[in-house]
């Protein structure tokens, strides 16, 4: 009897590689890089758009006066610099655009999260915590300013001249911008996207520190004002403390609306102080 033909034994396949989970910290830095690049790019585009519009205005004015086209060296003087309204609109487009891009592209809320946020927003305790945090932020900022003054440190926020011009010429738009629009897009970017990523990864305290540092830096960039190192450090402490307080409130209540409301209250108080008392 002949032996049965041998059946070749198949070569075993290597085990499927298990994909390594993405590092939440690497994702945070990528989010921050995208936000910075988007903010810079949109700011540049807004500046170019304003320059083109202003250049058209200068050309029309020159044609109406019959003086002919101005010399190249005179164009910059005639164009001037963006006014308060233009700067506020640029900030709205650049920072707001970065916040929306990061939210919809990288950290869009799921239906379950939106439902939980809505439920938290309907709890009375949520708004009690919101008022408490807003009061603590105001008291803490005032205390830091008072201590700094005793030490001879009196910084001037970079955006103070802009706020003063806007108060004088565009008060209603300034209120809409500072009290409603800016708190919404800043909380969306710094708390929902940046802090929220590390919070969801189980590292809320690291997220609080890093997102608050980014929040402080974007509000006071070294070299953009006449503030010295001590003044910059004081402003960073104020803005960083605000960012940490709003992140804590977001985590404590479970809804971003609480952080937006506390931020809006803080900006409303600061704006009222600027209008009625001229405080920095």
Helix content: over 70%
| Beta fraction | under 5%
Number of helices: 10
Number of strands: 0
Distance between the termini: 105 Å
The radius of gyration computed from the alpha-carbon positions, rounded to a whole number of angstroms, is: 26 Å
**Structural class of the helices, strands and pairings?**
mainly alpha
Give the mean pLDDT.
88
Looking at how many chains there are and whether they match, the oligomeric state comes to: single chain
Low-confidence stretches: 13-19
Series of H and E elements: HHHHHHHHHH
Main sheet makeup: none
Q: What spatial form do the alpha-carbon principal axes imply?
A: globular
């Amino acid at each position: 009897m002949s032996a049965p033909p041998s059946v070749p034994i198949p070569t075993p396949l290597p085990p499927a590689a298990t994909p390594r989970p993405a590092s939440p910290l690497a994702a945070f830095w990528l989010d921050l890089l995208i936000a910075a690049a988007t903010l810079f790019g949109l700011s540049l585009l807004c500046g170019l758009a304003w320059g083109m519009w202003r250049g058209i205005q200068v050309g029309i004015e020159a044609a109406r006066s019959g003086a002919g086209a101005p010399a190249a060296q005179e164009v910059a003087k005639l164009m001037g610099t963006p006014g308060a309204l233009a700067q506020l609109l640029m900030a709205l487009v650049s920072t707001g655009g970065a916040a929306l891009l990061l939210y919809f592209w990288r950290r869009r809320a799921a239906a379950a999260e939106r439902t939980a946020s809505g439920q938290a927003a309907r709890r009375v305790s949520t708004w009690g915590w919101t008022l408490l945090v807003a009061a603590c932020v105001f008291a803490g900022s005032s205390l830091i300013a008072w201590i700094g003054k005793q030490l001879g440190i009196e910084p001037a926020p970079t955006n103070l001249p802009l706020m003063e011009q806007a108060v004088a010429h565009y008060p209603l738009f300034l209120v809409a911008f500072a009290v409603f629009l800016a708190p919404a897009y800043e909380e969306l970017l710094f708390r929902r996207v940046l802090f929220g990523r590390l919070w969801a990864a189980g590292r809320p305290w690291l997220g609080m520190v890093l997102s608050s540092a980014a929040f402080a830096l974007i509000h006071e960039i070294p070299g953009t004002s006449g503030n010295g190192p001590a003044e910059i450090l004081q402003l960073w402490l104020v803005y960083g403390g605000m960012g940490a307080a709003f992140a804590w409130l977001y985590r404590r209540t479970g809804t971003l609306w609480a952080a937006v409301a506390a931020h809006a209250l803080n900006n409303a108080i600061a704006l009222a102080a600027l209008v009625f008392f001229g405080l920095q």
